[in-house]
Amino acid sequence: MRYIEKYASLSIAGDDEETIHQLRVGFKKLRAFIRLAKLGATATKQLHIPFQLKKLYKQAGALRNLQVYYHRIGSFYKNAAIDPAKILTQIEQAKYPLFKTINHFHFHKTVKGMEGALPKRLNSKILRKFIRNNSKAIDKLWGTAMSDDDLHSLRKHLKDITYNVQSFHSNIQKYLPIMGKTNKEELNKLMDILGEYHDWVACLFLLDAAGSGKAIEPIKKRWECKKCLLKRSMGIAPFNALQS
């Protein structure tokens, strides 16, 4: 929570893309820990992430998606008749609800409220159970057609595992293979690819919202091709999806 608070304050001061990204990373680490802690929780009070904190995370995500979109669409402004000023306006509009939520958020009070529901102790047995549960969920997803939502869920499961292993100062190597990956580098590479894939999904959604026409269609095709290449690199995209 101190990490989240730090980057929440920095986002108001500078609001650059990396700061917003680190704010969301902090939330994901906390969310991963809470999911783990639930396995060891015995208190009557339910352990959960407060609604206002989820709201902050969602608003930060909306802002970051626009920031990523702005940078990736930059080289197409002249050709596609897309007005960069309009996107910058959308970015400024997305900042307002996020900064308002941050300014009214009580970090210390939130921590105190969550502490009462935490288990007294977490051990390696609970961590192993958590990893097994997430690995089973990953295996189940891997056997499906893998929609964009499935791939997003897959990344969340992988992040939940790696963040909690880091929190325990444990070596992830002893829990491998996970999703067929036999070393840490392979797993990290897969998560990076999934992250980039998700960014293209978000950018394509914003491009669709921007309109259609002859100027925009070539960008869509190019970005869809990037998505297909990333999916193929994970070994789950049919080759015929790349023919165009």
Q: Key features?
A:
single chain; 244 residues; mainly alpha; 2 domains; 10 helices; 0% strand; disordered C terminus
SSE inventory with pairings:
Blueprint: H1 2-13, H2 17-40, H3 51-73, H4 77-80, H5 84-103, H6 107-115, H7 124-142, H8 148-167, H9 184-210, H10 217-233
Helix pairs in contact: 1-2, 2-3, 2-7, 2-8, 3-5, 3-9, 7-8, 8-9, 9-10
The tally of domains stands at 2
Strand content: under 5%
The tally of strands reads 0
Relative helix content: over 70%
- Mean pLDDT, to the nearest integer, reads 89
Q: What is the overall shape?
A: flat
Uncertain runs are: 237-244
- How many helices? The count is 10
Structural class: mainly alpha
Q: Termini, distance in Å?
A: 46 Å
Radius of gyration: 20 Å
Order of helices and strands: HHHHHHHHHH
Largest sheet features: none
What does this structure look like?
The relative contact order is 0.10. Helices cover 72% and strands 0% of the residues. The protein has 244 residues and is mainly α. The C terminus is likely disordered. The radius of gyration is 20 Å and the shape is flat. It folds into 2 domains: 119 residues; 122 residues, no CATH class. Helix 2 crosses helix 8 and helix 3 packs antiparallel against helix 5. The longest helix is centred in the last third of the chain and has 27 residues. The N and C termini lie far apart (46 Å).
Brief overview:
The protein has ten helices and no strands. The chain has 244 residues and is mainly α. It folds into two domains: 1-119; 123-244, no CATH class.
